[in-house]
Amino acid sequence: MCARRVLRAGLGVDTVKGPVTRRPKIERNLFSDPMPERVEPCLALLQSKPPTGDDWAFEVKWDGYRLGVHIGPGKKVRVITRGGHDWTSRFPTIAHDALEFGLDSAILDGEAVVLDERGASDFGALQKALGGRSGKRSAASAMLYAFDLLYLNGHDLRSLSLDERRAMLEDVLASQPHGSIRLGEEINTEGAPFLKLACELGLEGIIAKRRSAPYRSGRGGDWLKIKCVQSEGFVIIGYEPSTAALGGIGRLVLAARKAGKLVYVGSVGTGFSHASATALRKQMDKLVIPKPAVSLSGRRQAYRWLTPALVAEVEFRAWTDDGKLRHASFKGLREEADEASVYVLQSSEE
Fold it and tell me: What number does CATH give the domain 230-349?
């Protein structure tokens, strides 16, 4: 049974329709709003616990690549990453299936994922399908879980509430129920039990969205993310070579940002497969420099230092009292196209 069905069964709920007032379907050619070339995505703000109240909807937090799927006039599809790069050729099945909706124009917002045997998203599997960081392969097996509709048949929908946009998205996706583009489901429950069950199932966390809010680009607080396990991007500033470890990597040396500078935050030595470690070692050996790019105490003569160009996605449980990652595990490299942002240290973590 897939993870989403287990979640619904465990909570005793079904997917939510909620207090939605459905709008009439928008007719084509009634009037026309200019179709944006690109929409900066609405981003979820990290919170420690779920919000409460009837104005919040809850979804599973997917672990993949954020994409905007643009369906334009003349049956032209563009698949745009969070960083604004055109990855249409790297998600051919999603691009193909977007045309099957038969829409004049649309912009879908969602997350491309590859699912594991439990039905949960697997970031490492998605990276492997794409050929790794800066790879050129296409992820034909990837699926898009669409969770918002920003534009439809000549109409800009961003000023509408989330509930109104979701109702229209459900109508659009109902015409192609078995393709690679599927609805990112809402779960009709309170946030706290939903988060608890998501964590018990080994999922990354949940997303909370304000039902009454329009679509606002950036991290404004209308969308929140609550994680079971923290996962962030850190710069790789060096590594420890090893003749015994997978791919010859004993551990990666990591840095975060603080006051505009890079600061050492510890290391990670688990989470690698032989293939991912071997590929990573090849990339790192092209970036070797004579001394570390950040200030470090102690002697680390066995390490190789790197130009801080690669961003690792690292899962971790907490911070130590001296500002280092605790129980860290490597998940993969973040692409520039996916806005490989580096974690910024807050005062509580310093």
Answer: 2.40.50.140
